[in-house]
Design a protein that fits this description.
Blueprint: H1 29-37, E1 47-50, H2 57-65, E2 69-74, E3 97-102, E4 105-111, E5 115-120, E6 137-142, E7 145-150, H3 153-161, H4 163-173, H5 184-206, H6 216-229, H7 245-249, H8 268-278, H9 283-288, H10 293-298, H11 301-308
Helix pairs in contact: 4-5, 8-11
Length: about 300
């Protein structure tokens, strides 16, 4: 169930099969779904617009008992629809209509290229005298081009307010994060994710602001960045961390030192001193490790190599 103006999803219900827990006999899947989704909206002046899968005289009567008006198209084989509305031979003229009422319930039959049936509890059968001519006709294509076809009172309002669900589905397809999958759990998760993002975007647009508002794509990028910010870790260099060999050994360079006996390998301290002598380290390293200056001066390169041999 969505708002008719912006496509904001108010409530939804996932079909999981027949409701076996309900003790009362089910009046119909479409009727049960609409009655479940409209809980909490009783006697507040709301109007529910439905398509021909949900609309029925039974649903209209039950919604009236809850203080909710309804409008929608209905199938021609729906139980309770007056038979007088069905087109008779010869073929009706395009734009012709007929209607029947029962209390507040209005049933309308309008013939376009084929008959279309409406049920409403808020409309009157005929147009008001002060209704503009533009609201009495709709544009249709024909062999002669675009023509104006007469229409009943319910058609304009149905086309105007039925676009809520269509707009919600359209918004879910813009920059969608979902992926095609044959399994149903991921499809539900992606649908719920898209619904949440689009609902947030509609709330964002409804907030009055003097600054320029973000578009749908920019809003999604900003949302993704803010969600990732709290979980982002510090960037680390690829490879092994560099360690200062002298700091790792914890030695104090105060003079000559004795090499450690073991497998033949290069002495760490002496290797560092040689690099200082040959100028392979950067000037920043030399300024930082000033404690090695007297060692380099007292021990030439050849002497250091003899010690490490």
């Amino acid at each position: 169930m969505a708002d008719a103006t912006n496509g904001y999803i108010l409530q939804q219900q996932i079909y999981t099969g027949k409701n076996v827990e309900q003790r009362m006999p089910e009046v119909g899947l479409g009727t049960r779904v609409v009655l479940d989704l409209t809980k909490g909206y009783e006697n507040q002046g709301y109007i529910v617009v439905t398509d021909n899968f949900y609309t029925s005289p039974t649903l209209a009567q039950k919604l009236l008992q809850k203080g909710i008006n309804s409008l929608g198209t209905v199938k021609g084989n729906t139980r309770g629809l007056p038979k007088e509305l069905f087109p008779q031979k010869p073929k009706p003229v395009r734009g012709s209509s007929s209607w029947r009422t029962c209390g507040r319930l209005l049933a309308v039959s309008w013939y376009d290229n084929k008959p279309v049936y409406f049920l409403s509890t808020i409309h009157k059968p005929l147009h008001a005298p002060d209704t503009p001519q533009a609201n009495k006709e709709v544009k249709r294509r024909s062999k002669q081009g675009v023509v104006q076809v007469p229409c009943p009172t319910v058609l304009k309002d149905y086309n105007k307010y039925m676009c809520g669900i269509d707009r919600a589905d359209q918004n879910n397809r813009y920059y969608s994060a979902g992926r095609n999958c044959k399994r149903w759990p991921p499809r539900i998760v992606f649908h719920q994710l898209e619904t949440s993002i689009n609902n947030d975007f509609q709330l964002y647009k409804a907030i009055p602001t003097n600054t320029q508002t973000l578009r749908s794509r920019e809003f999604r990028v900003s949302l993704a960045i803010n969600l990732v910010m709290s979980y982002r870790t510090k960037s680390q260099a690829i490879g092994r961390p560099k360690k200062d060999p002298i700091a790792a050994l914890g030695l104090q360079i105060v003079g000559a030192h004795m090499p450690v006996f073991g497998p033949p390998r290069v002495c760490t301290v002496c290797s560092h001193v040689i690099k200082l002598c040959t100028g392979k380290l950067k000037k920043e390293m030399r300024n930082k490790e000033r404690g090695l200056d007297h060692l380099v001066q007292s021990f030439p390169v050849s002497s250091v190599q003899l010690i490490c041999a």
